[in-house]
Amino acid sequence: MIEFQHVFKSYGRGRNILADVNFRIQPGEFVFVSGPSGAGKSTLLKLIGGLEPPSRGATLVNGHRSDRMPARARPYLRRAVGVILQDMHLLYDRNAIQNVLLPLAVAGHAPGQSLSRARAAMEKVGLSGKEDLNPIEMSGGEQQRLAIARAIVNRPSILIADEPTANLDEDSARRIMDVFRDFNRVGVTTLIASHDRSLMASYATRTMRIEGGRFTDIPGAG
Amino acid sequence: MKRWLNQHRYALGVAVRRLLTQPFSSLCNMLVISLSLAVPIVVAAVLDTAQPVVRQIPVSAEVTLYLDLASPPGTASRLGAELRQRHSNDIESIEVIDRDQALAELRSRPAWSDALAVLPDNPLPDAIVITLRQHPEIAQTTTQLSAEWKQLDGVDTVQVDSTWVQRLQALLDFLSIGLWILALGVAIVVLATVFNTVRLQALTQREEIAIARLVGATESFVRRPFLYLGAMTGLISSGLAVVAAWAALQPLNTAINRLASSYGTELSLRLPDSVSLLLAGMVVAILGALSARWSVNRNTRF
What we know:
The complex is a heterodimer. Chain A is 35% helix and 26% strand. By secondary structure, chain A is of the alpha/beta class. In chain A, the strands form two sheets. Chain A has a six-stranded mixed beta sheet, with helices on both faces. In chain A, strand 7, helix 6 (170-185) and strand 8 (189-193) form a beta-alpha-beta unit. Chain B contains ten helices and four strands, in the order H-H-E-H-E-H-H-E-H-E-H-H-H-H. In chain B, helix 1 crosses helix 9 (219-262), helix 7 runs parallel beside helix 10 (274-299) and helix 9 (219-262) packs antiparallel against helix 10. Chain B has a four-stranded antiparallel beta sheet. The radius of gyration of chain B is 32 Å and the shape is elongated. By secondary structure, chain B is of the alpha+beta class. Chain B folds into two domains: 14-57 and 167-299, no CATH class; 62-161, Alpha-Beta Plaits. Classes of the chains: A alpha/beta, B alpha+beta. The A-B interface holds A 51, 72, 75-79, 83, 85, 89-91, 102-103, 105-111, 150-151, 154 and B 2-4, 6-7, 9-10, 207-208, 210-219, 221.
């Protein structure tokens, strides 16, 4: 479960990116976060993923007050939340499977067990047989799927993705969304920041619109 | 525990990979450290070899007074007693060697007996061998007393027998202090070199560190490969330093053996014992890891 109570976020003395945000997302929901560029979608996802703390208010992730969490405890929260950022953040000096192995190494899994889990994750996102490729040799859609494989390999209970289909053609975008839907069907709470209305119409069960730092909850398609 | 071990194994692998991906740069850093480390090892080898030799030589100052050949009999005993009374604080012992006694002793040696047989009379003077008490300013006292005794009636020559040993000992003491200062300087070289290596590594691994944090890496996880890198740099450099010091000792040994054989003795410079070298290597490895920790803490705040 994810819950925000009167959450504000600003950088320095600048204006509030998020202002008095309140919402609750139940386990297993599939939620789109929509809104114009610069509205605060990415900031919201970073707050959920524990990548940044809120300026004010309470943020609860999986029952833990992440806003009150000491810095040394936040990494453990991040392991429970699979994060896919807009620019994917892949390691281009390693091959695909080594990218997927990183979260398992971070969690301290044994190499043999890690390898089979990483292969399984790549298979789930349709990248079987591409383990030895360098990410740079992959298409944009494949790189996005590789980022998803890395995000899900530690079996997170929450998956958040920031504009995962940006810069992809329609077919690739739908394949990516199908991957997210499949994970959601097995109980993974999924949040996707996007401004692609056609995708929202096809996949969303709930859409939260953010504009001017404030939220409007729209049940069903955006 | 198993997870912790897995994380360490991973960190060690990452550190080895980082060393191997930039072999020339890594080797250059290690060479800088190892050459700096080789200097104190060579100095330690010199001290290790020289100190026992010097300790075996009697270091108490001995002053021998040779009297005029024309001195009447009994002068040596009288002068000896007078000096013992006058300088009782400085004198440890006095031995009076009568010229006839000295001649008899020499005649008992086969090498000298033939030569002495052809001499018309005894060429040896009476002698007084004075051993001075040990104290820190012994060299100064020896110089002062020997100058004073040279002015005494009946004294022909004054010979100071062991000042050079004391001076050599003082020089070795100076070198020992110098070795510690040198070791401190080398420690700073190790710290600075590893700090800079890790700083550059941290900058090039910026993306990897950011991604590791994104997927839940703790700061310990981020730091660990750098600590291994620092420790390995220190350990490998120590090994190279021992090899370099050993190589440097070979030509030095040839030269020192030539010198020692001219004194009818054998002397060779040896590396400090393996336990000391191993301990020193471990200290350098720990220094490397500490420096790496300091550097990674400062350079991964992003």
